[in-house]
Amino acid sequence: MTLDKTAAAEALAEIGASQRRSSSLYSYTRAAPYMALAGLMWLVADLLMQFSSFNKTLIWPVVSILGTIGFIALALTQNRTGSRPGSVAEEKAKDGVFWRIMGVWLTVFVFMVATFIVFQPSDGIQTHTFIGVFFGSVYTAVGFWMGWRMVATGIALTALSLFGFFEVHQYYLAYMGVVGGGALILSALWMRTA
Known about the structure:
There is one protein chain. The protein is built from six helices and no strands. It is an all-alpha fold. Helix 1 runs antiparallel to helix 2, helix 1 runs antiparallel to helix 6 and helix 4 packs antiparallel against helix 5. The radius of gyration is 20 Å and the shape is elongated.
């Protein structure tokens, strides 16, 4: 059986589309647990901030420390599972991914702290909205490489954060916990589907 140029080009285009879809689905599968954990952190911390009698200045720091431990555990688990032992070069590359993830996490943390020091938001709602818009923008930007589901998540998170800032007042933290945390949790579930 011989293929003409048109059939060969179509076959190659189909293979390329299949590879891109496979890559996106793999990336979604790897990112989903991180998004679910971030969403759970956001949901729990904001609901505690809104409704609990705990010391409000400790809630987010404690949840962030616990979440960071969870992120590290996820990174280490993903680094160790899901692939068979390979060459020394493959193992070094796998170890490099863990350190890149940790480097990105540290860079984001330093950026946030520096931003708050420089701009000194006047209230917690400004701070909280900035974080929602910032991470919404990050998810959107990452989505341009990873896939449209991440873009949709980022746009939704940004829009919901801005809506909350301008329209939700008395129960702002509960709103942000449910829509911000919920958006990430639902997106994580969405990303795990084919």
